[in-house]
Design brief:
Largest sheet: none
Distance between the termini: 12 Å
Radius of gyration: 19 Å
Structural class: mainly alpha
Number of strands: 0
Number of helices: 14
Oligomer: single chain
Shape: globular
Amino acid sequence: MLTSLLTVLPVFGLIALGYGARWTRLLRESTGEGLSDFVFVLAVPCLLFKTLATAAIPAAQPWGYWISYFSGLAIVWIAAQLVASRVFGRKGPELVVSGFAAAQSNTVFVGIPMILKAYGDAGAVPLGLLLVIHLPVTMTVATLLAEGRTASFGLLIRRLFTHPLILGILLGAATRPVVEYVPTPFWTIVDLLAATAVPCALISLGIALRRYGLASGIGLPVVLSTLKLIIHPLIVLVLATKVFDMPPVWAGVAVLFAACPCGINAYLFAERYRQGMADASSAIALSTALSLFTTIGWLTWLGAG
């Protein structure tokens, strides 16, 4: 339990810093919006660009591994949107935010240290594969769902190809064949921007929590947290161990990756569209707190660590 607490403590520390700075009026309300815009337009695209440009992706894809993880992701995403729409009356981009929050994992602060602590070097390869694919897939799907409701096909294509996150993904993929020719000073700039993504995003989230609190109520955040921390990893566990044949370490990595709390990118996405910020911030805070206990349960069940 102490290890799990130390793992998630930096997340709460940065969120609390943003919350406290706004509560004491050291920071203005507009600071949070400015930070989220910076992270969404510059920092995260640079992170995606560097990840996709330099990642080692195997030629033969482990399809059972992909299907196990992303089937669970798709199921909880759809379930979250159905509940958010029919029970809580969400619609438009705020509906997409609910699905995104339930499906997208906090891998940087929780997933990476937890999985490497549990499986060591043996878990590095399957973990790396999911890290490369996970955020680009979820961000692309969320953008398509949000933009596709009101845009014509031509307008949708234009918005996608001018979207900061999609641009980061596309440019990263395009750079892969010539990555060794990219000058070092360019990578230094990219690394500096990418390194700011997580701390700036979490401080922005803390400012938002001060603004919204649990303005959306406790009901939807509880549903989203349950889908993310319990249902998603349970589906992945069944598929990875009962349906597909893969090494136990690969199955365990997929389950623990799915068991991470709601990711910060759901809040950044909500801020971008100015809808669903209260839902996203509450779900992230609640699921991160609860993950201290659910993570211990999943580690024990898998016999990892």
